[in-house]
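Example: Glucan endo-1,3-beta-D-glucosidase.
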Amino acid sequence: MATTHSGVPAHGATMHGGTELLPAMQSVYNTVVALGLQGQVNVTTTHSLDIMGSSYAVQYIQPLLNFLSMARSPFLFNCYPYVVYKADPGSVPLEYVLFQPNAGVTDPNTKLNYDNMLYNQIDTVYAAMPQALSHTDVDLKISEALGPDEEDEQRNKGRKEEDEHRKRLTSGPMDKLVFN
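Written out as structure tokens, the predicted fold is:
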């Protein structure tokens, strides 16, 4: 199993709630505590940004965040700016996705201008935590972020764009794990 440089185990599958997840996490955490490993082993799960737009999310995430707060474990989320672009290339400028110079997008509520989609996605999660979910005490970590794939490279999207995307994803103050 891969781990991030902050020691967070990384698992390739994204868990989407369900009534079984939280009790399973609590059971794992109780075992971690019984072994005296709390503070050394984080018990958490990863989420797609899709969960932010779901009314079910508050019912599911609030108890999860309460658990993560108690366990001092991070909230992991996946960002896929390039996947958004590929789904509708006509509505998302490629430069905005690949950290290239562009006019950016201004958030109508905060008036913040984002020059790339990744930072916009990250701020979406940061904004939701204290406002909608009443939590400021749970660390946020990117668990997965995808850029252009081999198929795109073969279509001349270019290695340069992928390298720039990967460079930006792996720099900055947040702990993150980039999968290929």
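Residues 2-169 form a domain with the TIM Barrel fold (CATH 3.20.20.80).
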